[in-house]
Amino acid sequence: xxxxxxxxxxxxxxxxxxxxxxxxxxxxxxxxxxxxxxxxxxxxxxxxxxxxxxxxxxxxxxxxxxxxxxxxxxxxxxxxxxxxxxxxxxxxxxxxxxxxxxxxxxxxxxxxxxxxxxxxxxxxxxxxxxxxxxxxxxxxxxxxxxxxxxxxxxxxxxxxxxxxxxxxxxxxx
Length: 173
Fold this sequence. Notes:
By secondary structure, the protein is an all-alpha fold.
């Protein structure tokens, strides 16, 4: 039998034994934690639903393709393939949407192409900024993001440029 298959049951058993040794009511603590988790879920669900709705509306309206066309010359000057513009626009908002766009890019250009490689590295080196802010700030009850969003978007842009540079440098076509 594999040792890793016993790891989770062993951790649960040790936790229960330690809790009983400290005279902690394990069931009450478990239900309190579940109640708190549901409260957090109820606080973060509305911003997430709004965020995902906005992403799907943005894609369905054709605005994403229009904005990608406008950004193409700027991306070229930054060393980012213009074909990845849709990925750059969606990644900060939706991980699932960005993954779909990355899959489309790889299907269209090939996973071993410069664009496919850039898309893969960009997906791995950037964050779903607005989703993350909505979840973490929403669960903590923070309403003002102040400098968080501009700093995070600058970090995303840096990640996109670094990904394109790294692919050019390390994985030439």
